[in-house]
Amino acid sequence: MRIARPLHFASLSIIFFSAALRADESKPVSNLKVGVAKVVITPPDSAPTVGHPRPTKGARDPLRAGVLILDDGKTRAAIATFDLVDAFDSLVKRTRAAIAEKAGVPPENILVNASHNHSGSDFDKNPEWADDVIAKIAKAASEASANMKPVTVGYGVDHIGFSINRRKVINGRAVVRLNPEGPNDQRVKVLRFDDGESLTPVAVLMHAICHPCFFTWGDNATEPHPNGFPMKSADFPGEAQTFIEKAYDNGTKVMFLQGCAGDIRPNLPGDPYRCADEADIQWAGRDLGGAVLKALAKSMIREERSKRQTHYKLKVASERIALPTKDGGKIEVELMAMKIGPYLLLAMPGEPMVEYGLKLEEAIADRAVPIVLGYSNGKLGYIATAAAHSVGGYEPTQSPVTPEAEEILLRGLNRMADRVVGDVFETFNKHPAEVKMRVEKER
Ligand SMILES: [Zn+2]
Q: How far is the CA of 263 from the centre of ligand 1 (A)?
């Protein structure tokens, strides 16, 4: 008896101690569940390198895709990311079909984003590799869906230093230059999903804005790769994924979301710029990776963690709209809004200039935390602002759509935001045009 008593107290105190620890670590009491998986999709040598077409042999680092499944108890959604140059229409369609089949996510609730990597291959032109990519996505969707767990969501912002605007207006005409005075957005936005058991996140979404074209054309004088880097690579988004995952002992999965990077590129001065070497890509990978690590760490300190919600509503809205093309026709594109609690992903296809993100944010920031994506859910090409069209230059010249596309796109994305954020406002809005639209929608 004399021995049993202290033992009894000892075991009781262990129970109390662990209970206290759990409460202090704020084990999530959240309705939101996520599951995540990543796969290597490096193209074979037989699939030519696009973005900057050039002869390559082998891969410097792996190209990857990620699948994140989200479920709030009512709605199921997914985000799929690719270290590829575009969200090819066929890639979007087949990715959605695979994730729908393997993870039970409605296709219209699946967001597909490409990093705009200039050292990968064309999904449409290499059918064998494309089939392999889709088979791997299906496998990733099964794996992610089999490992769903409740999480809370942390958010943080930090900055990169390697991106720069590449347009300069001289005597009323835009030319290709590295322009530190031009519009830019060096913020890195980070979402982390935590199960409350560990200080290592289950999954990380990082959002940054810059062309992954470190390994494209060098100028005449620049060694060592005057004709472009001779290997496939996932460029800086891949380098950063690896850097962050290593920092967490490969216990987490990091996915990259590309923003409005139409006129933003790596700051590699040359004539007008140079191709990156090994030091350059390590700089960018560590710069972005370091910024993400800082944001991730900060969002776990007690004061930040206490701000987390315990209930996350998941809402997705999408719409196909027509944009006027330069040849007098129309092109259909898909716009999407995905809201995860207070965080709002707004996605458009193609390569919007950086101003698109800034303008949308200004319109939305009082109602949600906006994260604006280009290169999503379809392929389009450059989307210049109306103002950029008036001074010309590379992006407006290459753009398939007219200056009028800007207003249509901005309105459309604001409408998508309203559908996932502003329910109450929409219901009570008595503007005749809105009422008419509502009546038509209900019909
Ligand atoms: Zn581009």
A: 8
Q: Which residues surround ligand 1, an ion (CB under 5 A)?
A: 351
Q: How far is the CA of 120 from the centre of ligand 1 (A)?
A: 13
Distance, CA 219 to ligand 1 centroid (Å)? 18
Q: Which 3 state secondary structure label does DSSP give 405?
A: helix
Tell how strand 119-121 and strand 187-194 pair up: unpaired
Strand partners, 179: 165
134 near 127, Cβ under 8 Å? Answer: no
Ligand 1: centre distance to CA 299 (Å): 32
One digit per residue, the tens of pLDDT, for the chain of length 443 reads 444 444 444 444 444 444 334 444 555 579 999 999 999 999 999 999 999 899 899 999 999 999 999 999 999 999 999 999 999 999 999 999 999 999 999 999 999 999 999 999 999 999 999 999 999 999 999 999 999 999 999 999 999 999 999 999 999 999 999 999 999 999 999 999 999 999 999 999 999 999 999 998 777 767 777 788 999 999 999 999 999 999 999 999 999 999 999 999 999 998 888 899 999 999 999 999 999 999 999 999 999 999 999 999 999 999 999 999 999 999 999 999 999 999 999 999 999 999 999 999 999 989 999 999 999 999 999 999 999 999 999 999 999 999 999 999 999 999 999 999 975 544 555 566 666 666 666 55
Q: Cα(first)–Cα(last) distance of the chain, in Å?
A: 78
pTM: 0.90
Ligand 1 centroid from CA 68, angstroms: 25
Could you tell me if 186 and 161 are in contact, meaning their C-beta atoms sit under 8 angstroms apart?
yes
The Å distance, Cα 351 to ligand 1 centre, comes to 6
How much distance in Å is there from the Cα of 8 to the middle of ligand 1? 67
Q: Residue 116 C-alpha to ligand 1 middle, in angstroms?
A: 7
Distance (angstroms) between ligand 1 centre and the Cα of 145 equals 33
Query: Residue 171's Cα: distance from chain center in Å?
Result: 36
Distance (Å) from CA 211 to ligand 1 centroid = 6
Per residue in 347-359, is it b (16+ CB within 10 Å) or e — as a string?
Answer: bbbbbbbbbbbeb
On the question of a cis peptide bond just before residue 237, with omega within 30 degrees of 0, the verdict is: no
Distance 162 CA to ligand 1 centre (A): 17
Residue 43 Cα to ligand 1 middle (Å): 20
